Fold this sequence. Notes:
By secondary structure, this protein is α+β, with helices and mostly antiparallel strands. It has a 6-stranded antiparallel sheet with strand order 20-21-23-22-24-27, sandwiched between helices. Strands 6-7-8-9-10 form a 5-stranded antiparallel sheet. Helix 4 packs across helix 5 (197-206) and helix 8 runs antiparallel to helix 12 (405-449).
Amino acid sequence: MVDMSSFDIAAIVSELRALLINAWVSNVYQVDSLFTIKFRTKEGTVELLIEPSKRLHLTKYQRPKPKFPSKFCMTLRKYLRNQRVLEIKQYKFDRVVVLEVGRVTAEGEEQIRHNKLIVEFFERGNLVLLDSEDKVIVALNYRVMRDRRIIPNRKFNFAPSRGMDIKQVELDDFKTIIQNSDQNLIRTIIRNLNISPIYAEEICFRAHIDKEMQVSNLIDENYSSLFENLKGLISLLQENTINPVINQVNSNTYLTPIDLAQFSLANKQIYKYFNAAADEFFSSKEEIKTVAVELKDKKTELSKTEKILKNQQKAIQQLERNSIRYKQLGDILYQNFQEIEELLTSIKNAHNNGRSWEEITNIFQEAKKKNIKPAQFVKKINYNNATLLLTIDGEEFSIDFRKSVAENANNFYTKAKKAAAKLKGAKKAYQQLFQQKDKVELEAKLIAKEDRKLIEKRKKPWYEKFHWFISSDNFLVIGGRDLKTNELIVRKYMDNNDIFFHATFQGAPVVVIKTEGKQVPEQTLKEAAKFAVTFSKAWKSNYGQADVYCVNASQVSLTPPSGEYLRKGSFIVRGKRNEFKNTPLELILGVKFDEKFAIIMAGPPTAIKKHNDLFVQVKFGDKSSAHLAKLIKNRFLKESSNEHQKRLVQNLPLDEIQRSFPGGKGELVE
Length: 670
């Protein structure tokens, strides 16, 4: 992958300055060598991707975020998060970018806090965080070099520039630099003016001078022409009159902020912004590295689970055999009660009469020879542990000759009951683990199907911060997710001509139909009422129905009567209410396909079925929202009618599905 040149970085920084100055840093992420800084700007949230040594640009693509950030990333968060961007600039014309953040007083003069993030793109690249005195707080790579040191608590020095700053160079300086070289023209420009080969060639191309010409053969007109074309390229960057292009020349692609004359015959993709061109150029070649790792982890987990299941299955089979056998042994003892009682009595009497164990054994051996039935049962007398080894009906087992037949039989029946109880618990544990195995298999299947290419991040409309759906009459209906969003809807997004819904109990969302001044049909009112009860605590409590009321938005106020206090998320409703008694809880999740994305919508059946391509019904159940989201995604994958739809569902984040549920658990309706 081609690294960004100083020209490219200049164009990127020029666009970033217009967007990021006075923006706020909201977070920092690190995935391997990639860093993403998220900013809150007037236009919304944007993400800046930094890959030291290679590239810097805004990105519209989603990248997996690690569960646990690195120590370096945590330090960046500590000093950068919730800070305002004061400056972003290119250092001289080097491949170095400086991002300054901090806080200023209300007057905008005195800086309360000030940090710099230095991004170096040469050699292996580096990220260095500085304090207000330009001392190093932390660096991605600490280095000790001949001309500078990057170590903690030491003042940071920029690397010496390689060549002159071409923004400041004059014709005489340019001529002197070129004349003093003993190499050809192209090598001289690259080495002494800190210009990448592609732009050095462009200067020669525009000046109509052979790039391989020896410097000694140049004349004054050549120097003037080369210098004018160099300044011409620089002025395009400084005046921000760039024309970002991705040039396809045979099998090679070139990213440039300027439409270069040397690529006049190339196939071109033209972009409005260089950041967008750079994002497409680099991100289209970038694979999601974590997919293979996640799949390997899931397969390892699956292998362990299958091994445990196999061992549990063996244990269950053994418990089943024990439960049956112990009961059978108890039954055998009662079926041969009289004979076994004679055996036990004979042993006790002989032992009480002073007979030795050897004599007692000989007595039973003689009885066996005479075919006396009780003696035929005896295989061995173990006087050391007071047991009698018997063989009856093909079963060989031991009993305690100190106890009665009934006591020995009850001992076997007790063992049978314990084995049966253990068997019940073991089967339950096996079933739970089997469900876990199915869950892991489903997760592995979904991961394996994930597109290895980066997925473009969908720009969500404002209402998706809430629960929402489009009614069957095409009205937007929004609902709060919590106290904060309930209040936000009433305070900011509800107009006087809207219709306000709320269930008749606490723990319910504010639901608003955005009427835009139009008459709302009865069908939409019923759908909004169902939406209000379904996304309330009634779902978590498994209520089949609940009551809802609606009023005009003008009847709702966040201002309490004088002398009273209104809790957060609470509101005052004045005047007559229209009630919807015994409104049923019904929930369907649907997915709508467009050219690039699959969009999830959840709400009442009549509305969701009208506006979506695929849908699935959800009812009360015991599956968590996370597990349910995976099942729904898998169902949508199976029901997708073509590869385009399958790809869009594969790219659908699970958390978008999960966020569409009301609080509580559920399961799919088959």
